[in-house]
Amino acid sequence: MSLCSRKFLYQVLGILFCSLALTSAFAEEPPPLSSNCPQTFAATGKCPREICDYGCFTVTEDGAGCLMACREKPCIFIKNQFCPADRCQILKSCDDTEICYYKFKGDSPACGTIGYNGQDAQCCSGLVKRCGVDLLDGSCNMSGKNSIYAVPSCIPCGNRICDQFENKCNCPEDCG
C-alpha cells in the first residue's frame, strides 16, 4: 500500500470515527430538568417550557398589574420524555397510551379503594377500573385526554346504585 493511499485511509477512518462520536453525542437523552420551576427561574432567569409555565399567575395588591412567575406545569400537559419523576409518573391512559400523570403520595395500597387511579394495585373487591366523563352537553368523553380523568379509576360499578365517581359514561349499568 502506498503512502498516499494509507494517508487517505487514515483520513477516511478519522472522519468516520468523528461522525460516529458526534451522532452518539446528539442521540443521548436530554439532561434531567429540575422540577422546581421557581428555583430554576431564580437561579438561571429561564423557565424550562418543557415542564414549567411562565405567565401572570398573581395579581398585584393594587389590582393594577400582575406578578410574572415560573411555576410547575400540570403533569398531564408534560410530554413523556420530560415527565419529572419527583412529582409525576408515567401511567397507561384510558386510550391505552402512556402519559405523564400526577404522582400519588404514600405507599402503594394492597388494593385500590373507590376513586383510586394508580396502576400498581388492583381495585379492591366490589370495585372495577373504568374510564369515562359525563360532559355538560350530555356527551361522553371516554379518554379524558388532558384531564384528571385520563387514567382509569376504581368505582363500585355493577351494584345497581349510581355512586360517587360513577356516571352514565363510566358505568351505564348503574347510571344509564
Q: Main attributes?
A:
21% helix, 8 strands, two-stranded antiparallel sheet, 176 residues, alpha+beta
Q: Helicity level, as a percent range?
A: 10-25%
Number of contiguous helices:
3
Strand count, sense and barrel status of the largest sheet are:
2 strands, antiparallel
User: Low-confidence runs (pLDDT<50, min 5 residues)?
Assistant: 3-31
In whole angstroms, the N-to-C terminal distance is 84 Å
User: What is the gyration radius calculated from CA atoms?
Assistant: 25 Å
Q: Could you spell the SSE succession in H and E letters? A: HHEEEEEEEEH
Tell me the number of strands: 8
Q: Strands across the major sheet, in which order?
A: 1-2
Shape: elongated
Mean pLDDT equals: 83
Question: SS-based structural class?
Answer: alpha+beta
Tally of domains: 2
Q: What portion of residues belong to β-strands?
A: 15-25%
Explain the overall architecture.
The chain is of the alpha+beta class. It has 2 domains: 32-73, no CATH class; 81-176, no CATH class. The chain is 21% helix and 20% strand. The protein contains 3 helices and 8 strands, in the order ααββββββββα. The chain has helices spanning 3-27, 37-44, 172-175; strands spanning 52-59, 66-72, 88-92, 98-102, 128-130, 133-134, 140-141, 153-155. Strands 1-2 form a two-stranded antiparallel ribbon. It has a two-stranded antiparallel sheet with strand order 3-4.
